[in-house]
Design a protein that fits this description.
Blueprint (H helix, E strand, L loop, with lengths): L2 H15 L4 E5 L18 H6 L18 H11 L3 E6 L5 H4 L7 E3 L6 E4 L5 E3 L7 H4 L22 E3 L10 H13 L2 E5 L10 H8 L3 E5 L12 E3 L3 H18 L4
Parallel strand pairs: 1-2, 1-7, 2-3, 7-8, 8-9
Antiparallel strand pairs: 4-5, 4-6
Helix pairs in contact: 1-8, 3-8, 6-7
Bound molecules: zinc ion (ZN).
């Protein structure tokens, strides 16, 4: 590891260890080590399409996709009491399956394993609400509701797949909480996102306007490269574990009040 990268890891760890309201934001880049392709990375879906190349191959069959060390690092930061909220663009369920608590997670584009109530916005697994895809289909918002299909166990509202397809609105409550936590953050850590799609690109701007430090960890360019307080262009799985180790050492050396 280069001396520069070591310095960046140390800097990130110091800010995170001293933070009062750390918010993390993740894009597809955090899941590439799990075998999922990202979109705008060097070998991403859109990068290859723009170069006239065929789509990237999945690194593992879909049934074998598991959370990787980076997902687990975020769970650890949450358990240390540091990571207050996690905003993700991913629909791959890897944050939840890594053990990250649902109540501290906003999945802006939904989650392929969860359904959502249009009335109260509660989230459920397909099994929890008795939604059999063989009978009721995927339950996308644009599908016509079928007579007798399961309703929300909380408010009896219509439940749909939480996955946000093109043209669907984003989940309002999760979006609102994401804006709120971004504005409240003192350290905003963007991981594996090129931050070009709205509202992804709004969150770091809102955080910075509120005086938060912006840390970027991403392969490839983002629109925030010039204004970020710290920009780390390296592998996520190479950077997050030493950051978390260093954070733990700093906390142990200086217990928080
Ligand atoms: Zn409901």
């Amino acid at each position: 590891m280069s001396a520069d990268l070591q310095k960046q890891i140390e800097q990130a760890a110091e800010w995170i260890a001293a933070s009062q309201h750390l918010v993390a934001f993740t894009g597809a880049g955090i899941s590439t080590d799990s075998g999922l392709p990202d979109f705008r990375g060097p070998d991403g879906v859109w990068t290859r399409r723009d170069a006239g190349l065929p789509p990237p191959k999945w690194g593992a069959p879909p049934s074998q996709i598991r959370p990787n060390v980076a997902h687990l690092c975020l769970v650890e930061l949450e358990q240390l009491g540091l990571l207050k909220f996690l905003i993700s663009q991913n629909v791959d369920n890897l944050h939840l399956s890594s053990g990250f608590p649902l109540e501290r997670l906003a999945e802006l584009h939904g989650n392929g394993k969860l359904m959502r109530c249009l009335g109260c916005e509660s989230r459920f697994t397909f099994e929890q609400v008795g939604w059999d895809r063989r009978v009721w289909g995927e339950g996308y918002r644009a599908h016509r509701p079928l007579k007798g299909q399961p309703r929300c166990p909380v408010c009896k509202g219509r439940i749909i797949s939480s996955v946000v397809n093109f043209g669907d609105p984003l989940p309002a409550k999760e979006l609102e909480r994401s804006f709120m936590h971004s504005a409240e953050s003192d350290v905003f850590f963007a991981i594996g996102s090129s931050l070009v799609v709205s509202p992804a690109n709004d969150m770091p701007r809102i955080a910075m306007e509120a005086g938060s430090k912006l840390i970027l960890l991403n392969r490839g360019e983002t629109p925030f490269d010039e204004v970020a307080d710290l920009r780390i262009d390296a592998g996520i799985g190479e950077v997050l574990p030493p950051v978390v180790e260093r954070v733990k050492a700093l906390l142990a050396a200086q217990p928080r009040a």
